[in-house]
């Protein structure tokens, strides 16, 4: 209990009301294993996830070393993010195992300190890391991933072409009230474009059910989004007007025709980012566009990924609770054993998270349940282990 503590940490911790000498001692013991874990796990997952692939691109594709290093640094925040929960688990497990092995926990409990009070520094640290993880995942990682992918594409001369989508199909729906009062979604237009880029579309065919039945078919060579008038300018096309009885009514050829259609197809083709390149606000905006397309499979995937974005930071709290509960056992546990237990728990947790996420994508579980199932199991396991320790 007389181990020296960092002065900087002491100066901060003394400002926190209710932070006792015991709390400062345990918290100081947690800091170094946590920092060690961040460095260790970041290096390992970065090597597995990016470094080997970049080395292959350097040798096989002629990627410059300076660009590879730049991409590596830009990818680093994502892997530091992955390291936060694992480091929290390792720090809690190693710290409480050491205190238990040296009988310091027994001494504190003999003084009337409960197990719940003993793990409070680990819980506070986990809450802080949870907040840092959320902010890091929102403010740093998406922007860094976007810049890394852009840098790599440009270096490999894989600049994203103007044509973002080929054979693009966009169904537009509207909700109508049925005679029985029930609101259902019906198809209003079906748009097909051979090519869609960031400025317009080519090779268009539009089937229009905006009035009763199929009322017109529009074909055009090209269409450009008119930003000033907020509409589409169609060029070199034909409008086939269809009577309510589905018979021929008229044909109108045009060189230029404006049609009031939503901008959504252009947005879908030009603003699609990877999930790791979007923060929560961007993910919600992208989900609105996908909803308009009526692609319910993609909508469900967006909903699952959005809930996972909320749930992921709380892995730190789950791991902090599990680590302190397992570490406070009376058995003597070394650092190597702590590291092994950490690996097993991380693999078990992410296996469960992967399964529940897959069930969410398949529609078996609702999105919130798919994202939070692993956390709920982790909280339950940690709470049970603590209860077992408290009654012994």
Q: Which regions contain 5 or more consecutive residues with pLDDT less than 50?
A: 1-9
Largest sheet: 6 strands, antiparallel
Shape by Cα distribution: elongated
Radius of gyration: 29 Å
How are strands sequenced across the largest beta sheet?
1-2-3-4-5-6
Helix content: 55-70%
Strand-pairing-aware structural class: alpha+beta
User: How much strand?
Assistant: 15-25%
Distance between the first and last residues' Cα: 24 Å
Number of strands: 6
Element order: H for helix, E for strand: HHHHHHEEEEEEHHHHHH
Regarding quaternary structure, what we see is single chain
What is the average per-residue confidence, as pLDDT, rounded to a whole number?
83
Please work out how many helical segments DSSP would assign: 12
Summarize this structure briefly.
By secondary structure, this protein is α+β, with helices and mostly antiparallel strands.
Care to describe what's here?
This protein is of the alpha+beta class and 392 residues long. It is built from 12 helices and 6 strands. The protein has helices at 7-13, 21-60, 65-101, 104-110, 115-118, 120-155, 264-270, 280-293, 296-311, 315-327, 335-361, 367-391; strands at 163-177, 183-197, 200-208, 216-226, 231-242, 248-259. A hairpin with a 5-residue loop joins strand 1 (163-177) and strand 2. Helix 8 (280-293) packs antiparallel against helix 9 (296-311). The longest helix has 40 residues, at 21-60. The radius of gyration is 29 Å and the shape is elongated.
């Amino acid at each position: 209990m007389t181990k020296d503590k960092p002065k900087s940490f002491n100066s901060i911790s003394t400002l926190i009301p209710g932070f006792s000498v015991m709390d400062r001692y345990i918290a100081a013991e947690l800091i170094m294993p946590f920092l060690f874990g961040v460095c260790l796990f970041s290096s390992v997952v970065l090597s597995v996830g990016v470094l080997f692939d970049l080395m292959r691109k350097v040798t096989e594709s002629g990627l410059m070393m300076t660009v590879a290093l730049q991409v590596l640094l830009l990818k680093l925040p994502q892997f530091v993010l992955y390291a936060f929960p694992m480091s929290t688990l390792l720090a809690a497990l190693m710290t409480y195992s050491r205190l238990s092995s040296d009988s310091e926990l027994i001494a504190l409990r003999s003084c009337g300190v409960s197990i719940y009070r003993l793990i409070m520094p680990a819980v506070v640290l986990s809450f802080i890391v949870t907040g840092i993880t959320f902010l890091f995942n929102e403010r740093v990682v998406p922007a860094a991933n976007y810049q890394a992918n852009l840098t790599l594409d440009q270096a490999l001369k894989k600049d994203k072409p103007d044509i973002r989508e080929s054979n693009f199909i966009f169904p537009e729906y509207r909700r109508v009230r049925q005679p029985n009062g029930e609101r259902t979604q019906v198809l209003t237009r079906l748009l097909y474009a051979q090519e869609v880029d960031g400025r317009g579309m080519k090779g268009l065919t539009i089937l229009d059910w905006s009035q009763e039945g199929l009322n017109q078919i529009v074909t055009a060579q090209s269409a450009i989004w008119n930003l000033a008038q907020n509409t589409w300018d169609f060029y070199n096309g034909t409008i086939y007007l269809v009577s309510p009885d589905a018979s021929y009514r008229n044909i109108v050829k045009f060189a230029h025709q404006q049609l009031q259609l939503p901008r959504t197809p252009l947005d879908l083709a030009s603003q699609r980012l990877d999930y790791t390149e979007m923060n929560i606000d961007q993910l919600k905006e992208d989900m609105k566009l996908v909803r308009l397309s009526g692609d319910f499979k993609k909508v469900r995937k967006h909903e699952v990924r959005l809930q996972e974005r909320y749930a992921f930071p709380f892995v730190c709290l789950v791991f902090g609770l599990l680590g302190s509960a397992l570490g406070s056992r009376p058995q003597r546990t070394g650092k190597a054993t702590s590291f092994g237990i950490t690996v097993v728990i991380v693999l078990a947790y992410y296996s469960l998270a992967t399964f529940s996420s897959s069930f969410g994508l398949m529609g078996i579980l609702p999105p919130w349940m798919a994202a939070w199932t692993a956390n709920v199991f982790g909280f339950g396991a940690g709470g049970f282990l603590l209860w077992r320790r408290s009654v012994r």
